Amino acid sequence: MTDIHAVFDGRFGRRPTHVSWAPGRVNLLGEHTDYNDLPVLPMALQRQGRLALSPRDDGRVVLHSTDPAFRPVEFEVRPGIPPDAPGHWANYAKAPADMLARRFAIWRGFEGVLDSDVPVASGLSSSSAVVNAVGLALAHINEVEVEERAFAALMADAERYTGTRGGGMDQAVSLAAREGYALKIMFSPLRLQHVLIPEDWCFVVADSGVRVEKSGAAQKTYNSRRGECENAFNAVVEEVMRAGLAPTTPSNYPDLLRMLEREELLALAENTLDTTLFRRLRHVVTEAGRVQEAVDRMKGADLAGFGTLMDASHGSLRTDFLMSSRELDDLVGIAREGGAAGARLTGAGLGGCIVALADRG
Ligand code: GLA
Predict the structure, then answer these.
(1) Is the pTM of this model over 0.85?
(2) I need a labelling partner for 116 at 20 to 30 A (CA). Which of 46, 47, 167, 263 fits?
(3) pLDDT per residue over 34-90, tens digit each?
(4) Phi/psi of residue 335, each to 5°?
(5) Would you state the pLDDT for residue 215?
(6) In percent, how much of the chain has pLDDT > 70?
């Protein structure tokens, strides 16, 4: 790993006073469910974003990266920080600064050096690792104290500054994960459940090498999937109320699933929605069911059962949600041929990584 203290010294001529860090994540199950308030099951990676810093009292941030592709950036910490061009790395530092400045009277900036070994644009949340590391640093040096779950929700809101209408999974697992455990995350309100990973299980992450630039076409597709899920929800709720199937209007997907059995909901949706919206809804609703089952399989150390759920998740993302790609399908096939219990694309999809489950031996 890069010696960020030494790099900091080289750039600023003194030692940093603080280091903050936050890991990337791999999502094991529950893809495109978080922004529908449905559960997810990710775990943190050993890889992380690290920030060496020294506070400044003039409210400015001067940030260097150890990656020569990322030029130094400078901005003032205040509400309404103007963003750089979509996809610019500065936006991932500006995002938490802007949010914290809107919510709290903060006045300290910092000079810092950022280093990360989470591959960029690979579906492993390199972006949330940076948002969290910068957010934690700014909160600490400005004496802002926020409880862990509230801070995770705040950082999820913050990251929308970058133009992606993301859910809350990445920021929460990066802040709250524990070593050796997966994290079941439930939303509205945010709730966390640590699930011990059986010792002989091994999750293998493989990178397709196809970058998913969040600012480009992938961001547009991601945001449009989110819109489709909302449209499907609204149309189904209208039909549920018209048919008198619920006593009160369901306010989100979990509400809807509490009021109707999954099969009943799918039948009603199929009669109400066009094929595209029906498929989006079917992915979301069946994926939520798989997350609950996956938690039980993990607790029961049922490797084959967990693998089957991963395979089913990949199939649903490929055919109903259209977020796979030839490279991801190939990698998943190679993993299964190589003896994996199951494999699936991980993260938003369209490129990036797959995750496979295998017996450690
Ligand atoms: C991205 C988003 C997450 C989540 C996943 C898909 O990683 O940041 O909030 O929606 O895609 O599951």
Answers:
(1) yes
(2) 167
(3) 999 999 999 999 999 999 999 999 999 999 999 999 999 999 999 999 999 988 999
(4) -60, -45
(5) 72
(6) 100
Between the CA of 126 and the centroid of ligand 1 the distance, in Å, is 12
Task: List 174's β-bridge partners, or say none.
Answer: none
Closest by Cα among 345, 291, 296 to 323:
345
For ligand 1, the distance from its centroid to the CA atom of residue 222, given in whole angstroms, is 9
Label residue 217 by pLDDT band (50, 70, 90).
confident
Token output for 334: 């190679």
User: Who lines ligand 1 at CB under 6 A?
Assistant: 31-32, 34-35, 166-167, 169-170, 347-348
**Mutation test of ligand 1: which of 28, 34, 155, 224 has the most ligand atoms closer than 8 Å to its C-beta?**
34
Would you say 133 and 50 are in contact if contact means Cβ atoms under 8 Å apart? Answer: yes
How confident is the model over 96-151, as pLDDT tens digits?
A: 999 999 999 999 999 999 999 999 999 999 999 999 999 999 999 999 999 999 99
Nearest to 177 by CA among 243, 132, 236: 132
Q: Which of 132, 169, 223 to mutate to test the pocket of ligand 1 (most atoms within 8 A of CB)?
A: 169
Whether 1 has a pLDDT exceeding 90, the answer reads: no
Average pLDDT across the chain, whole number: 97
Query: Which residues does the annotation mark as catalytic?
Result: 170
Cβ contacts of residue 169 below 8 Å, gap of 6+? Answer: 25, 27, 30, 34, 40, 42, 185
From the list 290, 292, 295, 30, the residue with the least C-alpha distance to 181 is 295
Q: In terms of C-beta distances under 8 Å and separation of at least 24 residues, what long-range contacts does 77-81 make, across chains too?
A: 77/101, 77/106, 77/107, 77/108, 77/109, 77/138
CA of 32 to the centre of ligand 1 (A): 6
Question: Which stretch of DSSP H or E encloses residue 154?
Answer: helix 148-159
The rounded distance, in Å, linking the Cα atoms of 148 and 168 is 13
Q: Is the pLDDT of residue 214 over 80?
A: no
Token pair belonging to 90? 């500065």
